[in-house]
Automatic annotation (TrEMBL):
InterPro entries: FAD/NAD-bd_sf (IPR036188). It comes from the Eukaryota. GO terms for molecular function: monooxygenase activity. This is FAD/NAD(P)-binding domain-containing protein.
Length: 524
């Protein structure tokens, strides 16, 4: 009987990390044959952008990478802005460029570390390429089940667009939110979001452009604005030596010195390396019925500026920093939660279709739980999936090796029941964890306030009341209280009942009073 064979469809982050885990394990435990099929060509030009990784990703790294590989990967993580030592939790501003909330002070928001997605993918793929495990240019089309010689055994045959195929014991479908395996299995829990439009953009960051950006972005590295049911998220990745210099601009009391990076006419310092500097922007708004040609619109920057016409002018500098070919428009896909018993349910509907709900085809990452990007948890959950999948796969390989050592016929192989028990271990861990984050990231809601932690609902309500109170004061020529709404005020909830007194304690470290951050001013 040949070694236990795992076929991985998709060489992205999750697929590549799991392949590393199987390769590293087979060198010390039971033999495992691993092969990865990736649809993109090896020399495909990719648009690298930054993602933020946290403890969920670390679970996957620790499970799948060797100590040497993990150490090499850690060195790939850059710093983001001046406060990289505190992670990259975003700063929340309003459309007037007023500071509303520093998320790093909010315990429910998971701080994380930024890394370029393509740097991470290349790092994970490198050891696989050295071993000849990745096959590029292989577009997955479908799979079929091949019955074994013994009752209750089978294998999976995968087919590719170029006419080639392969056979394995288990297929890991890490083929993203347009997963064909998800569809063929009968899961079919992924849907397009039609209620919102938007774009993702990444561009280089010359010194001259840096000087035009809001200084809050430079100081913090990660800034978001929520207004009018629109969300603008921006991240500046600065050269490490330059960012280190910004972090050194603290006095012993923790206040930054009164100088401005954005002051016009200042020449770039020696530590500025334009090759290491980049700007990433994600902007979304409710679907505009008059903008049916958004994906092919010839002047996307003008459209974005029109959307933020009544916002602070500094936001336009972010749009001005982009070129037309920096802007990418894609379809946002999200998932509906599935129960742990979803395979049994779909099999009961089509009992004669052996491909539906088959336990030898496992779904990983966005192939089963794509989510909104508001919490940066999509990649984190996919990487965590690898830790949950690795252990049962190794256990199955050990069973196969024991059977081979006991002299069983080559045709017998692992029973489908054994594979299903291994799958259940994986899905019992993955499904509740991942779909909890799908929900926490906003589910399929078109309301951007639903994309953030539910505890922030109170903060948004307080801020809306503060702005309403300020507007009323101005209308009656009354002077608003300093800082707007005080934390000691009694607030009414949606049902008219006073909000819980715990608000004072829970938000005692938050400065709700707005701080105006004009371009060129020091962010304090």
């Amino acid at each position: 009987m040949p070694p236990f064979k795992v076929i991985i469809i998709g060489g992205g982050l999750g697929g590549s990390l799991l392949a590393n885990g199987l390769v590293n394990q087979k060198e010390t435990q039971s033999p495992i044959s691993v092969v990865v099929y990736e649809r993109e060509a090896e020399d495909a030009h990719r648009r690298g952008y930054q993602i933020r990784l946290n403890a969920h990703a670390l679970n996957g790294f620790r499970a799948c990478l060797s100590a040497t590989q993990l150490d090499q990967l850690v060195k790939k993580f850059p710093r983001s802005g001046a406060n990289a030592t505190r992670g990259s939790a975003p700063v929340l501003l309003n459309k007037d460029l007023e500071l509303m909330l520093d998320m790093s002070k909010f315990s429910v928001y998971a701080t994380s570390s930024p890394i370029n997605k393509e740097v991470l993918r290349d790092t994970l793929q490198e050891p696989l390429r050295e071993k000849g495990i990745i096959n590029n240019g292989k577009k997955f089309v479908r799979y079929e089940m091949i019955p074994g010689e013994k009752m209750g055994t089978s294998q999976v045959k995968v087919h590719f667009a170029d006419g080639s195929d392969d056979i394995g014991d288990v297929v890991i479908a890490a083929d993203g939110p347009t997963s064909k395996a998800n569809e063929q299995l009968g899961c079919r829990n992924i849907m397009k979001m039609t209620g919102r439009q938007g774009c993702l953009a990444m561009t280089s960051l010359p010194w001259s452009t840096l000087q035009t950006l809001p200084e809050a972005l430079i100081r913090k590295g990660n800034v978001s604005c929520i207004a009018d049911n629109m969300l603008l998220w921006s991240q500046a990745h600065l050269p490490e030596k330059f960012a280190a210099g910004l972090r050194a601009m603290h006095t012993k009391k923790g206040h930054r010195r009164g100088i401005s990076i954005c002051e016009r006419g200042i020449a770039p310092p020696e530590e500025w390396d334009e090759n290491e500097a980049s700007l990433m922007i994600n902007f979304s708004w409710p679907t505009d019925p008059n903008l049916t040609n958004w994906s092919t619109h010839p002047d996307k920057r003008t459209v974005m500026k029109e959307k933020m016409a009544d916002w602070h002018p500094a936001y336009e500098a972010l749009i001005d920093a982009l070129a037309d070919d920096d802007i990418f428009v894609g379809e946002q896909r999200v998932s509906r939660p599935v129960p742990k018993t979803w395979r049994k349910k779909v099999r009961s509907v089509q009992p004669d279709n052996k491909e539906v709900g088959n336990p030898r085809v496992w779904l990983l990452g966005d192939a089963i739980h794509p989510m909104l990007p508001s919490r940066d948890m999509g990649a984190n959950q996919a990487l965590h999936d690898t830790a949950d999948a690795l252990e049962p796969l190794i256990a199955l390989a050990q069973i196969a090796e024991e059977d081979r050592g006991n002299g069983q016929d080559e045709e017998e192989g692992l029973s489908d029941g054994m594979v299903e028990r291994g799958l259940q271990v994986y899905e019992d861990a993955m499904i509740p964890r991942a779909f909890e984050w799908v929900k926490a990231s906003g589910g399929s809601s078109n309301d951007v306030k639903a994309w953030f932690p539910p505890e922030l609902a109170l903060f948004f309500q307080c801020n809306d009341l503060r702005r309403t109170k300020t507007t009323q004061d101005l209308a009656t020529n009354e002077s608003p209280q300093p800082g707007g709404l005080r934390r000691s005020h009694t607030l009414a909830g949606d049902n008219g009942m006073p909000l819980k007194p715990s608000y004072d304690r829970k938000y005692s470290d938050l400065n709700i009073a707005p701080i105006r951050l004009e371009t060129g001013q020091v962010f304090r």
